[in-house]
Amino acid sequence: MKLMLGLFFLWLLSSKGNADNLGEQGILKAIGNIQFSCEQGMLPENPSTSVHALRPADIKTVTAIGSLQRAPGSDVHHEDLLQSTGKSLLEVSVETLAALISSFNPGVLHQPPPPGTKGATSDSQAVDLLNQAEEIVHLMKENQMMDFQNDWKLITVYFSAESPCSCCASTQLKNCVLDNLEKLKAVLDFLHKKVPKAFVNLVDSTELATFSLPYQDYNNARNQCSCFGECSILDDNILRWSYQDAWEKLLKSERYDQKDDFTVVLQPSLQERNLLLRPGRDGFNTTLKTQIETLEDYIFMTVGLWNNMMEPVGWKQPYNFTKMLQVRCPSQENPYLFTYRNSNYSSSLETSNTKETSQERSYGTNIPCLDQDPSDSVPVSVHNLKPADIRVIAALGDSITAGNGAASKPYDVLDVLTQYRGLSWSVGGNENISTVTTLANILREFNPSLVGYSTGKGKETSKNAAFNQAVAGDHAENVPAQVRRLVDLMKNDTRINFETDWKLITLFIGGNDLCEYCENPLHYSPENYTYGLQTTLDMLHREVPRAFVNLVTVLSVTSLRELYTSQNNRCPKLLMRVLCPCVVTPKDNSNEFKKLVYYNRRYQERTRQLVESGRYDTRDDFTVVIQPFLTNVKMPKTQEGLPDGSYFAPDCFHFSQKSHSQAARALWNNMLEPLGQKKDDQQVDDEIVLKCPSKDEPFLRTYKNSNYTYPNRTPNYGSQLLCEDRSPSSPPATSVHSLKPADVKIIAALGDSLTAGTGIASDNLMDLNTVFRGLSWSIGGDASLQNVTTLPNIFREFNVTLMGYSTGTGSENDSNAFLNQAVPGAQAEHLPAQARNLVRLMKTDPRIDLSADWKLIVVQIGGNDLCNYCKDPDHYSAVNFVRRIQETLDILHEQVPKALVSLVDVMDLVPLRQLFVDTQVQCPTYMADYLCSCLLTGEDDSPNLTMVKEAIRAYQLGLQRLVESGRYDTHENFTVIIQPFLHNIQIPLGQDGHPDVSYFAPDCFHPSQKGHSQLAKALWNSVLQPVGQKAESLDFMADIVLACPAQNKPFLGTYKNKNYTHPPAEPSDESTEVNQFCNLLFQNWGSDLSCPEQAPSSHVPTSVHELRPADIKVIGALGDSLTTALEAKATDLQRDWRGLSWSIGGDGTLETQTTLPNILKKFSPNLFGFSTGSSKETAGFNVAERGATAGNMLAQARELVELMRSSLEINFKADWKLITVFIGGNDLCQYCLDKETYSVQKYVKHLQDTLDVFYEELPRVFVNMVEILEISGLRQITASSSKCALAAKNACPCFLNPEENSSELQEIKRVNRDFQTEALQLINSGRYEQREDFAVVMQPFFRNTLLPLDRNGKPDMSFFAADCTHFSARGYAEMAIALWNNMLQPVGEKQTYNNFTRDRSKLRCPNTKTPFLSTLRNSGFRNSDLNLEKTGVSVPYWAVIVAAVAGVLAGSLLIWLGTRRKAKRHQCETDTEKNMKLTPL
After folding, report:
1. Of 253-267, 508-522, 782-796, 1374-1388, which gets the smallest average pLDDT?
2. Which positions are annotated as active-site residues?
3. SS in 3 state form for 1291-1348?
4. Residues 6+ away with beta carbon under 8 Å from 171
5. What's this model's pTM, rounded to 2 decimal places?
6. What angle is formed at CA 1461 by the lines to CA 1459 and CA 1467, rounded to 5 degrees?
7. E strands, 338-442, in order
């Protein structure tokens, strides 16, 4: 905060009025993005004597010098650009650094930069940096507030390198660097000589000066360079790196470390521009937004500089700014600013001990071929072309083909700018084959008259470049321009006959596209890359006769990462990051890395597809042949197994001559290898022996002379149907169980992207948004069965008038979608809306007779639910999934007559992981998180995957139980049949054993048309198969033959026409999880209530003793974690599920979850105050809190009163309110720890204080006081489970720690009974009976409760939460039932036990004669008669011990105490079967 205020103050002091224009919000935005948490230390008594132990607190003065040189050719002065902020970078950096240091030394001074340095203009106008240095020294000496000789100074020197323009025009680039170095050396020498006690930061600001211009001005500046076109981005980057390299060497020389009080440290350059000042920004337009951003940029840059001062040399980071920038603090171990000396820095330029001499070979080669003669006559076919027939050689590409750095000496990075075209692997012609191995030199051994090869050095425009028209830095999109120059050169060359001479053209491109793809994935997509290749090849095909084109596949660029990550080489890592950021910077296994691998492979694959399309084989004198030797190339290694840098130029990116010679050999061999047998994994560190043309086929190999057939790119996905009987029923079918295929007149479908048709015919990721509805397996109707296999096309073979199928592409709202209402991305919760839309379309379409036409409706859903399951298991639970399917089927059942619904089972998606795990498969693994994160990411044993597997089984089981319940077999014209063939799927494998992606769309997740065809066949066969005999698996590679209807029963299979009887709904014994799911799904905890009298009183009652359930308008509750419903759901422990709370929860409906509000909503639908969900914001009037004791009730009561009084939703005075209070478990469990605090007297006094608040402040109230239970039985239930015992002992020590029959145990039992007795006496004392509109009634249902037992006679833990100490949703339902029934039972006749037996009809109805909530008065008792419910029970109370631990284990502990009874066998199955018949899901 101090830092933020300091910067804000500095800004306001010196903004010259611009603060008003910017507004305080802009300043605070700029400053507020910085987090500063450094501890302020005491000022050191004795400042450091050495610059290598200099602490921030030692610094007394901060200043800076530097000029931000304007880019040549720009008409915009940088001074003008900075005017909007009123400050230059120099000023902001000085003030920001001073503000940071002031946290350590409040007396730090900031010496403003010398006048004239606010901005910078051209070289001639700018203040000379040496003059600035002299001026700043003068100013510091004159400053009366500092001691020049003894105060430590922090000086930042912003130094701009020469512009690329001025240097690229120079014939000696090295002179640029040397001149620049001399200028810098003069400035640093002066400071070293004249300034004592100084720490100097050296920062390269070249990039800032150039890129702070608006993008258009930057390009204009480059275009106006006299040498523009000669100076590439590669030149820029290498030249600037060379400056950095020279500066680092200067500083590493220890030239400025001769004195102990002076040093210079090179901080990271602004060259690595993760800065916010960069091309693409809106520039420095004088708008509010841009001014604020400019200030923010300057501050962020300076904070980045500060952070790097805290980092050792060699560990400094590029300026990487995020939304919140954390200011780094000095560490306790190293509390000083880092210098070269105290960083123990060893320059990356020092010679490595690793010898990069792996398999050294001569760069020359011997040609072993005896037959080097040309054809007897000049061939007319490219397929009969011998090497000696080649008369012209040419090449297209980028800097690899241009030969950048091919002969550069080690470590001479600047020389990589030299293009050694005479050494280029594919077209260089220096010397001869004995000394230089290139493809051209090999061919010259066969034809010495070869022309077109390049020699010497130079750019593509140089004469000696000849037909090597490769351009350094070019991308695939730039190659057509190279073709244009090449064709013009060939046509104008008098040495060749353009029409008759055979030409060999080698094209190699793509490295730069991959290096930059991450900066613009769309622009450098595989599709755009291929389009660039296609445009190039189309031009050659169209304009160049007699040509053999080598298309060399882009190499596997990921191997370059090994050079970057290796510590045992002298690679310029900074330069590598600049040259190829998308390859070297992603972390291993990151999505960015996976995307790189995918793009790389797709470049290669789409290149192959382009050529194999046959597009370039339409003439006999032209062909394109892919040479794949670099497809799977790996990093060459030294004998020690480390990356061998000798194969690379000094920048570790381009090829050295060693690699050029190996690439030439490999290319030559590839040209002689038949298609289908070409080597695609040539390793450059292998010995490569040149092959010779074979005697039988002495030609350069093409698809034709290799007898190679390109794979069919337009396969036919049609099918044959051999069924003879295709007639409809006669007379027409009246029952769905006697429905023949030809009877179906309408077909429809609901679902997600699988049914909609996402990506079916897409050939690239960009096209995945296209929905090919006409090709969808279950509903598509494009073409006919002869060409497209879909379910409608099969049915159309039986009934040509079939309607409803979709055609073409588009959304569900397009007319051609017709009755295909599937929506990409849909989940089960969206299915009911689709069903309603489908019904509407059927009812309104005049072509459809809803009541007479037979309909087949295919429903398939669940993939998206499973893919999101791990993110929200509750929302995507099997119960919810099946409930949503049920809602959908209910709509169809109720509104669509004459329909057979094929419910296709939930697909087991787990096998799809193979496509994303197998590294040999060309799938976009980086999209795994986007496509299906819960399934496709993580390890095989990950919790998320385990959850999804269990969910799949639960989904499938749930659908089976739903359909087999008979719910949809109530009449003869409707049924639902599960088609289970997707229950288990087998991923198709290719001959290599890896997944066959031809069955899938480009995302490897959706099926392709090939996959949809298989799905359609499997669905058709399943529709015909008898219920009980349907296939439950699908092998995508199987030869699926379309079945025909059986002759004896030619009907679509239903349970009835196949004499199938649904099995009893018994939970499977496969796993406990499935059994639990059985209970959850078909034994929901709802109840049935059908009371004849549900109306409210004819007029709002004024007496609480005449209060009907329907008169209740408001509900509230007090208590502990029992009332917050802690852990009611097993999906999320330690969460309060207030919506399920027995006394106040309102989630769902009474049919699905029994709670007191859900019961009351049957009488009073507008009931207000109940809680929902698990958020405190939706708690309503549920003010209960975890861990509460009776002592907290007064505060809860007051909170509730205020909530009700301030609510705009209720009438505070007129509305009747029902409040339930249940408390005491925590008091009992902690009694022995503090007997005074938790005494009986205090317990009762707290209850009295609570009720007094209600009595005095709340009008029209009925209060349920639920009696505290006896907790001693908790000991018995914990004995049944060690897990429960451990949790409960920690939660309720006063009951569980004492020994049996000990005095401590007897005492706590007595206190428990006293709690009950004294609380009852308070309620019956008459204290709260003086008001007509107020009553408190004790509800005693917890007194004697039977312990529920499972089939093995053990406590039934389904009533408990996972921690064994809280209720589950089932247990809460039983509590709600007991409470409701107690409320209706007269005082004196209230049930004092709960047997916890599952029965949906246990809820009572109000008495028809006296339909009121029971009070003392309307039960016929006077106050004097009230000694009720105080019974002397001879048998110990066996009750539900839940309230016991309400705060110790974050809530109440719940226990069942009751007399034992023998559990019935098969209780789960019986209850399940019963509830399937009674309960809507």
Report:
1. 253-267
2. 399, 513, 654
3. HCHHHHCCCCCCHHHHHHHHHHHHHHHHHHHHHCCCCCCCCCCEEEEEECCCCEECCC
4. none
5. 0.60
6. 135
7. 390-397
Q: Which residue has the higher pLDDT, 1201 or 2?
A: 1201
Contact (CB, 8 A) for 151 and 60 = yes
Rounded CA gap, 398 and 476, in Å?
A: 9
1031-1080 pLDDT, tens digit per residue, is 999 999 999 999 999 888 899 999 888 766 655 544 444 444 444 444 44
Quick check: 1265 and 1323 in contact, CB under 8 A?
Answer: yes
Please tell me the distance from the alpha carbon of residue 317 to that of residue 319, in angstroms, as a whole number.
6
Full DSSP string of 725-781 = -----SSPP-SGGG--GGGEEEEEEEESHHHHTBTTT-SSGGGGG-B-GGG-TTTB-
Query: Which of these, 1183, 1130, 1031, lies nearest to 1363 by C-alpha position?
Result: 1130
Cα atoms found within 13 Å of the Cα of residue 539, Cβ hemisphere only? 20
The distance from CA 984 to its chain's CA centroid, rounded to whole angstroms, is 27
Angle at Cα 250 formed by Cα 247 and Cα 253, nearest 5°? 150
Cβ-contact 205, 68 below 8 angstroms: yes
Structure-token match 């020699």, residue found: 455
Q: What's the token pair of residue 1219? A: 């409040």
* CA trace torsion 1019, 1024, 1027, 1029 (10° rounding): -80
Q: How far apart are CA 600 and CA 598, in angstroms?
A: 5
> How is residue 750 written in tokens?
């609901």
In sign, the C-alpha dihedral spanning 629, 632, 637, 641 is negative
**What b/e string do you get for 231-243 counting C-beta neighbours within 10 Å, with b at 16 or more?**
bbebbbbbbbbbb
Q: Which two tokens stand for residue 983?
A: 């229950």
Mean pLDDT of 612-641: 94
At 236-288, the pLDDT tens digits run 777 777 777 778 788 887 889 888 999 999 888 764 444 433 333 433 333 44
DSSP string, 438-480: -HHHHHHHH-TT-B--B-SS--TTSGGGTTB---TT--GGGHH
Tens of pLDDT, residues 1279-1334: 666 556 566 667 788 888 888 888 988 998 899 889 989 999 999 999 999 999 99
Sign of CA dihedral 210, 213, 215, 216: negative
pLDDT class of 1007 with cuts at 50, 70, 90: very high
- Long-range contacts made by residues 222-226, C-beta under 8 angstroms, separation at least 24? 222/71, 222/73, 222/165, 223/73, 224/72, 224/73, 225/72, 225/73, 225/164, 225/165, 225/168, 225/169, 226/165, 226/169
What pLDDT shows up at residue 481? Answer: 97
Q: Using the Cα atoms of residue 1094, residue 1098, residue 1101 and residue 1105 in order, give the sign of their dihedral.
A: negative
Query: Measuring CA to CA, which residue among 719, 550, 534 is closest to residue 613?
Result: 534
Cis bond upstream, residue 586 (ω within 30): no
d(CA 601, CA 923): 9
Q: To the nearest whole percent, how much of the chain has pLDDT over 90?
A: 57
Handedness of CA 617, 621, 622, 628 (dihedral sign): positive
**Can you read off the two tokens belonging to residue 1119?**
């208590």
Cβ-proximal residues to 1302 (8 Å cutoff; 6+ apart), any chain: none
Determine the residue type at 1227.
D
Whose tokens are 């006496």? That residue is 1321
Check: CB of residue 994 under 8 Å from CB of residue 1004: no
What span, in angstroms and rounded, lies between the C-alpha atoms of 1025 and 1021? 6
Q: How far apart are the first and last CA of the chain?
A: 56
Q: Rounded to an integer, what distance in angstroms lies between the CA atom of residue 327 and that of residue 1037? A: 59
Q: Could you tell me how many residues make up the chain?
A: 1481
In single-letter form, the type of residue at position 394 comes to: A
Find, among 249, 285, 284, 291, the residue nearest to 266 by Cα. Answer: 249
Model pLDDT for residues 359-417, shown as the tens digit of each residue:
344 689 989 898 899 999 999 999 999 999 999 999 999 999 999 999 999 888 889 99
